[in-house]
Amino acid sequence: MSESSTAEANRPGKSSKEQQPGLFARIALFVRQVVAELRKVVTPTRSELVNYTIVVLVFVLLVMAFVFVLDFGIGKLVMWVFGTPSA
Amino acid sequence: MLRAFAQAFRTPDLRRKLLFTMGIIVIFRIGSFLPTPGVNYANVQTCVSASADNDVLGLINLFSGGALLQLSVFALGIMPYITASIIVQLLRVVIPHFEALHKEGQAGTAKLTQYTRYLTIFLAILQATTIITTARTGVLFGGCGEAGGTIPVISDDSAVTILLAILTMTAGTGLVMWLAELITERGVGNGMSLLIFISIAASFPAALWTVANAQGGFMTFLLVVLLALLLIAVVVFVEQSQRRIPVQYAKRMVGRRVYGGTSTYIPIKINMAGVIPVIFASSILMLPTLLAQFGDQNAGWVQWILRHFATPASPFYLITFALLILFFAFFYTSITFNPDEVADNMKRYGGFVPGIRAGRPTAEYLRYVINRVTSAGSIYLVLVALIPTLAFVLLGISNIPFGGTSLLIIVGVGLETVKQIDSQLQQRHYEGILK
C-alpha cells in the first residue's frame, strides 16, 4: 500500500528529489523494515506446531469422513428415488 | 488430545452446538444432491460422467461441493452470499452511506446485512438463470444434454418449468444463506466459511482418488500427500505466529484500590485477514468464466476468457489471482483492524505502548507495524495459494486435484473452528484440545 503511494510521489523530474531518497532506496528501506518487524514476531514452539498440525489434520479428516459417509448415503438414496443413468 | 474431542461431546453446552452444526451440514448436503424440479436426474448423471474432465466449471463446481453440476437445489451453494458480502464491503469505501451505517453500530450493521441478503438473492437469480440456460442449450455439459436432444437434461422444455427451476435454485441459495447464519449464531465456527469448507471437503476424497489412480502412480500420490502435509504445517505455523505490541497500563487509584498497572500486548497476526482474501479473490476470478457462459461460444472475447481464466494453470490467471490476493489482504486488514480506534481505546483506559505517546502517534505506530507485517503476510498468502498449482504443473499432473486455495481454506477454517471449540472447552476448565 505505502509502496504504491511512494512510487507515485517519486515521478522523475520532481523538485523534491533532493530531499527524498530514490525509489529503490525507499523500497529497500521498506523491505528492511518488514524484516525488522518479522524479527519481532513470536513463532509457535516446535511442540505447539506439531500439536496444532495434528489436531487440524485430525479435525479435517474427521469432517471429510463425516461428509463422505453422508454423501455416499444421500447419493444412494437420491439415485434410488430419481433413477439411475441409462435406466 | 483425542480424548478432548470426546470431551467436547460430553460437555452439554458444546455438544448441543456441535450436533446443531452437524445437523445443518446434513441438510446442506441433502440439498446439494436433491435435483431441481424439471431436471432429469438420470440424464444429468450421464452428462456429468461424459464431460467429467471439462475443467471450465471445475473450480466453481468445487466450491459448491459438486452440487453445481448435479443441478441440485443448492447448486449455487454459498458463493452468491460470499460474493454479495464482498461487494457490500467494497461499497463501504465507495458509498458514504454504507460507511455511515457501519459506524452506527449494531443497528447499522443489521441494515448492511439486510442489503447483503438482497444482493445475494439478486446474484442468485442471475447465476441460476445462467446455469439453467446453459444446461438447456447444452453448453454447461460441453454439448451434452441439449433440450430436444437424445438425453435432455431438462425434460420438459417449457417456460414454466424453466422458471420453476430458476426459482427453486434462488430459493435454495436463500436457504443456504440462512443455514450459514444459523451456524454462526448457534453452532460452532463461522457459517459462511464452514459451509465452503464442507463443500471442498466433500470433493477432496474424489480429487485425491483421481491422483492416486490416474496419473503417475503411487510415487506421485505420495508426493502430493507430502506436499499437502508440508503446506498444512506452514499454514499452521504462520497462522499461529504473531507480532506482539507491548502495552503498559498505568496504575490508577480508585478509592483505596489500585487498578491496572498490568502489561499486556496487542497480538497482531502476520496474516490478519485469514483466508478471506483467497476466498474473495477466487470468487471474483469466477465471474469472467460465468460471464462467458452468457456469450456466444465462438466470439473472440469468450474464447479469450476461456483461454485465460478457465484453467488455473494459465500464467494470466495466476498473476491476476496473486494481485487480487495482495489487494484483498491489505483491504480486509484495513477493514477489520482500525488503528485509530485501538489507539483511542488504549488512551481511554490508560494504556500506552512503551516509548510512544498515546493518541495519534500510537495509531501511527500501529499502522506502521500492520503495514509491514501485512506485507509479509500477503506474500505468504500468495505463495501458499499458488505453490500447489505450480507444483502440479511442474509434476506434469494435468488436471489439478486441489489448488492452494482449497487447501488454505480447509486448513484455515479447520484451525479457526478447532480453536473456537477449544476456547469453549477451556471456559469449562477442561484441558482443551490444544494443550
Could you explain the architecture of this structure?
The complex is a heterodimer of chains A (about 90) and B (about 425). By secondary structure, chain A is mainly alpha-helical. Chain A has one domain (about 20-80). Helix content of chain A is about 70%, strand content about 0%. Chain A is built from three helices and one strand, in the order ααβα. Chain A is elongated, with a radius of gyration of 28 Å. The model of chain A is unreliable at about 1-15 (pLDDT under 50). Chain B is mainly alpha-helical and about 425 residues long. Chain B has two domains: about 1-205, SecY subunit domain (Preprotein translocase SecY subunit, Orthogonal Bundle), CATH 1.10.3370; about 205-400, Preprotein translocase SecY subunit (Orthogonal Bundle), CATH 1.10.3370. Chain B contains 17 helices and five strands. Chain B has helices spanning about 1-10, 10-35, 40-50, 60-65, 65-70, 80-95, 95-105, 105-135, 160-185, 190-215, 215-240, 275-295, 300-310, 315-335, 340-350, 360-395, 405-425, and strands spanning about 240-250, 250-255, 255-260, 265-270, 350. Chain B has a three-stranded antiparallel beta sheet. In chain B, strand 2 and strand 3 form a beta hairpin. In chain B, helix 8 (about 105-135) runs antiparallel to helix 9. The radius of gyration of chain B is 24 Å and the shape is globular. The mean pLDDT of chain B is about 80. The chains are: A mainly alpha (about 90), B mainly alpha (about 425). Strand 1 of chain A pairs antiparallel with strand 1 (about 240-250) of chain B, so a sheet runs across the interface. Chain A: Pfam families: SecE. Chain A: GO terms for molecular function: protein transmembrane transporter activity. Chain A: This is Protein translocase subunit SecE.
